[in-house]
Amino acid sequence: MNPISDHLKKNLDILFVGFxxxxxxxxxxxxxxxxxxxxxxxxxxxxxxxxxYEAAEDAKLLEIGYGFTNIVDRPTKAADExxxxxxxxxxxxxxxKIEQYLPKVVCFVGKGVYQQYSGRKVAPWGKQxxxxxxxxxxxxxxxxxxxxxxxxxxxVAIYKQLGGINLNK
Length: 169
What we know:
Layout: E1 14-18, H1 23-28, H2 39-45, E2 66-70, H3 84-101, E3 105-109, H4 111-118, E4 126-127, E5 137-141, H5 152-163
Parallel strand pairs: 1-2, 1-3, 3-5
Antiparallel strand pairs: 4-5
């Protein structure tokens, strides 16, 4: 199964970074394509998109300043299938992408994604103190996976904070 394409351009408002594609995303070639994943619903309910987009429209979000990538490219059933070597390589690749494209905010879709990227053991929800790439805001949000046990309204409240970040640099 092939990795799915990143959707990147310079100076994005928000770059969303997941662990890796689901099997369903790998099959369809789109980010957050698993029907149990609540990503698109969360973005809409948090006021980050004007309507609820479908996974097949992921590239269209570049038009409103949002991009997508993952720390690991290989699709898996679950994040626990990702190897330490894949995370090490992914961390370096992701840092290079962020340095090249310089989004205003990098939103890590899952605390574990940020911990793998930053090497930090503790990461509160929301905007982080300091960032890995200078000049880029690191933001930690809950995973949108249907496996996450947080209530949807709690998750949406955290994502709403993204709309309150001053993106004017």
